[in-house]
Amino acid sequence: MPPYTSAELRQRWRPEVMRVAPHTPVRLSDYATDYTGDFAKKEAAEILSMGIERLALYQDRLYAQNRYALLIIFQALDAAGKDGTIKHVMSGINPQGCQVFSFKVPSAEELDHDYLWRYAKSLPERGRIGIFNRSYYEEVLVVRVHPELLEHQQLPPECRTGDIWSQRFAEINHFEQYLSQNGIVILKFFLHVSKAVQKKRFLERIDDPAKNWKFSLGDVQERAHWDDYQTAYEGVLSHTSTPWAPWHIIPADHKWFTRLAVAAFIYEKLESLQLHYPTLSSDQQQILGEARATLLKEPEA
Ligand code: AMP
Ligand code: MG
């Protein structure tokens, strides 16, 4: 395997192209969906598997240290590759230290609570990586594109007077700041796919019997709202990328690059936390020494 260094890789995949600076207006047409940095597909698998090994090492320390939690949020239109990215990027991770939650249409019980309730209940514990496959961002995306969904939320009229979307952006920013101030580190990924590639992937789901189960007529109906979703995503990306919970716009036309970029951002974040195994106090070291002596005194079986 070539001796890839982090600095060398960083120069080649240019993370700054994908990072959304805090409170900066985003136009999605400025972001290429087919960007692949300075990488070729044939070397991607090798680099990814190296990255996955290193991720597993960091996860072990995160778990042992039991101080931080890492919350990773995935948002995207259908067929952008959320499920596959989660599957590949987390493939080397100890399942005990990782939880994945996929959020669907809210239940009647969930609708009877404030909109952040079901997500707050699913946050990762310290030492763990929590993955949200869709998230509270749906509350300013699908709910914005289909205003009738807001009607199901039973909000009293006085809560509906201002601009509800600006209000929710502010609430989400505060919520994430609160989480970050409590040791929950947040990374957010928007997988940015083109309309043409979405169509190609839908057709594959129809034509390939092994993929039929992934096809949903609802997805094709949502595709008719493509422009509304792009606008809603631009609102989210423009108003909720913060120093404590940055958005990353990940090109999603080439799955191999999506996976590489997501793994690299997670790796970079874990590296920045300077995770280490807990060191023992002298009292704890003495206890270990005594336990060792007791074990060694046992007669041989
Ligand atoms: P999938 O992730 O493809 O299995 O689909 C889940 C579906 O649930 C998508 O159509 C989402 O738009 C929908 N969904 C997720 N969260 C919400 C929400 N808060 N309100 C309404 N629909 C949602
Ligand atoms: Mg779907």
| The number of domains | 1
How many strands, which pairing sense, and closed or not: the largest β-sheet?
5 strands, parallel
Put simply, the count of helices is 13
Q: Which outline best applies?
A: globular
**Could you list the spans in which at least 5 consecutive residues all have pLDDT below 50?**
none
Helix content: 40-55%
How would you name the oligomeric state of the polypeptide chains in this document? single chain
Bound molecules: adenosine monophosphate, magnesium ion
Strand content: 5-15%
Model description:
- The chain has 301 residues and is of the alpha/beta class.
- It has a single domain, classed as Rossmann fold (3-Layer(aba) Sandwich).
- It is 47% helix and 11% strand.
- The protein has 13 helices and 5 strands.
- The chain has helices spanning 6-13, 41-65, 82-89, 108-111, 117-120, 142-145, 148-151, 164-180, 195-207, 217-223, 226-239, 255-272, 282-297, and strands at residues 69-76, 98-102, 129-133, 184-192, 247-251.
- The protein has a 5-stranded parallel beta sheet, with helices on both faces.
- Helix 2 runs parallel beside helix 12 (255-272) and helix 3 (82-89) packs across helix 12.
- It is globular.
- The chain binds adenosine monophosphate and magnesium ion (MG).
- The site of magnesium ion has 3 residues, from loops.
Q: Which helices and strands, and how do they pair?
A:
Elements: H1 6-13, H2 41-65, E1 69-76, H3 82-89, E2 98-102, H4 108-111, H5 117-120, E3 129-133, H6 142-145, H7 148-151, H8 164-180, E4 184-192, H9 195-207, H10 217-223, H11 226-239, E5 247-251, H12 255-272, H13 282-297
Bound molecules: adenosine monophosphate and magnesium ion (MG).
Adenosine monophosphate binds at residues 78, 102-106, 134, 138-139, 142-143, 149.
